[in-house]
Specification:
Blueprint: H1 3-25, E1 27-31, H2 32-54, H3 67-92, E2 99-103, H4 104-127, H5 130-144, H6 150-170, H7 179-189
Antiparallel strand pairs: 1-2
Length: 190
């Protein structure tokens, strides 16, 4: 690589380190049970809204495909409300509640990995090829975890994905049973 590119990589790396240091210092302590109750209450309400759109029923049936999911969501909502009320009463009485520390840096990294999975899904779906999506996902993971040799690792990832895809398409049996794949995998893991 030329000095300009190394300078650009080094400056981006330094900026990411600075952002990481700022995010590492940001932490919140939140009541675990209260947060869980609120999240599952929201989840239950969203699921109750989605169930009629996802499960078609016949009007003549007494017990249909929506009965169990609806019952499950009503039980989840009831338990969430009970948990929220208990925690609010504890907070009002100034009693001790369970707290958990939420680190913003960890949450941002998890969000980036989730976004990489979404990109993988859309690339694989639009291209119609799982291997292309896997190669893009692999490169995104290398970027997220800040691989120090991105060009050689990216090329290695693409070659490995392509050879894996081609060998699986040609084989009439699963690739794991092939000796060549085992030896390639063993050398890759070293």
């Amino acid at each position: 690589m030329s000095n300009e590119k190394m300078g650009l990589v080094a400056s981006v790396d330094a900026k990411l380190d600075a952002i990481g240091d700022k995010l590492k210092k940001k932490e919140w302590k939140v009541p675990t049970d209260l947060l869980g109750g609120v999240l599952f209450l929201i989840f239950g309400l969203v699921m109750l809204w989605l169930i009629p759109q996802q499960i078609e029923i016949k009007k003549k049936e007494l017990v249909n495909g929506r009965a169990f999911p609806n019952l499950l969501m009503y039980v989840m909502i009831a338990c969430s409300i009970i948990l929220i009320v208990q925690q609010v009463i504890k907070l009002a009485r100034r009693q001790k509640v369970k707290l958990t520390t939420v680190n913003l840096l960890v949450e941002v990294k998890a969000l980036l990995i989730f976004l990489a999975m979404i990109v993988f899904y859309f690339v694989a779906k639009t291209s119609g090829n799982f291997a292309v999506g896997s190669a893009v996902f692999g490169m995104l993971m290398l970027f997220i975890f800040r691989c120090k040799k991105p060009l050689s690792s990216t090329a290695e990832q693409l070659i490995w994905q392509r050879s894996r895809y081609c060998s699986c398409r040609r084989a009439s049996r699963p690739c794991c049973a092939r000796q060549g794949y085992r030896s390639m995998w063993a050398t890759r893991m070293r």
